[in-house]
Amino acid sequence: MAAHAATNATATIPIVFIAGPDPVADGLVQSLRRPGGNATGLAMMTSQLMPKRLELLLELVPKAVTIGLLQNAAGIGADATEEDVEAAIRAFGRQLVVLRVGTGIDLEAAFVSAVRQGADALLVSPSAIFTDRRAQIVALAARYALPAAYPWREYVDAGGLASYGPNIVWAYYQAGEYAGRILKGDKPADLPVQQPVKFETVLNVKTAKALGLTVPRRALVRADEIIE
Predict the structure, then answer these.
(1) Which residues have C-beta within 8 Å of that of residue 6, sequence separation ≥ 6?
(2) What are phi and psi of 177, to 5 degrees?
(3) Spatial separation of the C-alpha atoms in residues 129 and 137, rounded to whole Å
(4) Which stretches of the chain score pLDDT less than 70?
(5) Are the beta carbons of 67 and 114 closer than 8 angstroms?
(6) DSSP β-bridge partners for residue 96
(7) Contact 114, 144 (CB under 8 A)
(8) How far apart are CA 21 and CA 193, in angstroms?
(9) 106, 131, 139, 171 — which has fewest CB within 10 A?
(10) Residue 116 CB burial class (10 angstroms; 0-12, 13-18, ≥19)
């Protein structure tokens, strides 16, 4: 949403963004290869990776029948994310419970709703409002004994169960590189929007044990990092 606010505010000042799934569909750029305007940056493929996070979650919690989706109700592309997740969950023969958090950001109410609706595990959508509150989300997941999969490793560093996605530190580094190039004279219109080429799986086995989960050996072998 910050990227949209910036591009709506000016058509001349260069903008470097770190955006969600599809900056073309969201109207930030004309194309990934040639953005064409005053903005460029990184597309983090956030919603496209949700089915992979679901796969990881079900590997860790194979008996889960009902999956909760913690969703920013005001997030860009929220409806598309829900559709993608629902299709993936149906393919696995599971049920979906959507937990929409509005402007009040009452996270505990969302977790209470998840438990009342029988959620066995939780997917957390990639949203800045959730990332900023990751310590609270991880604490609530522990309190309500909900195994959860997250978009960024920072959640797992804070005690979350598992994450799958690109490295956000890499993204900020690349954004800084683009800002430097623009300051040296490059035009945003000519700098292709970058997408991640590497994705990492991070597991917290201490959290898994606290939840009574046994992490399969195949998940441990595939993990890029294991926190104990």
Answers:
(1) 15, 17, 39
(2) -60, -45
(3) 11
(4) 1, 76-77, 103-104
(5) no
(6) 67
(7) yes
(8) 12
(9) 106
(10) exposed
Options 3.90.600.10, 3.20.10.10, 3.40.50.2300, 3.30.1300.10; which CATH number does 2-45+168-190 get? 3.40.50.2300
pLDDT digits (tens, 9 = 90+) for 15-51: 999 987 788 888 889 999 999 999 999 998 877 888 9
Q: Please give the torsion angle defined by the CA atoms of residues 151, 143, 112 and 49, in that order, rounded to the nearest 10 degrees.
A: 10
Compute the distance between CA of residue 33 and CA of residue 172 in angstroms, rounded to an integer: 20
Q: What is the pLDDT of residue 77?
A: 65
C-beta separation of 104 from 129 below 8 A: no
